[in-house]
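2024-03-11 09:14:02 DEBUG pipeline.ingest accepted 1 chain
2024-03-11 09:14:02 DEBUG pipeline.ingest length=93
2024-03-11 09:14:03 DEBUG pipeline.predict start
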Amino acid sequence: MNKLTVQVTRADIEVGITGRSSKCPIALAFNRAFAINDAQVDNYSFESRTMNAYFCLPTACDRFIMAFDAKKSVKPFSFTLSARCLQRLSSSD
């Protein structure tokens, strides 16, 4: 993977749950993009044990998560990750 664009859709927003790192619209979009079911996100990162991977998220994701968790109106958006943002989790994590 050199670059991956992740699309957060209206459907992700509608079924997303505030305050739940695995049910955030961004986590749902990651699950779809990577064909996984264990995405976890916080304001700054994405993690998947299935993929044994961790990504730092762009600032736009932080703003989206803060607004979504505050129950403010949010819109679908996309963001791009590059391979240099990927870190492999150690086996002790």
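2024-03-11 09:14:41 DEBUG pipeline.report The first strand starts at residue 3 and ends at 8.
2024-03-11 09:14:41 DEBUG pipeline.predict end
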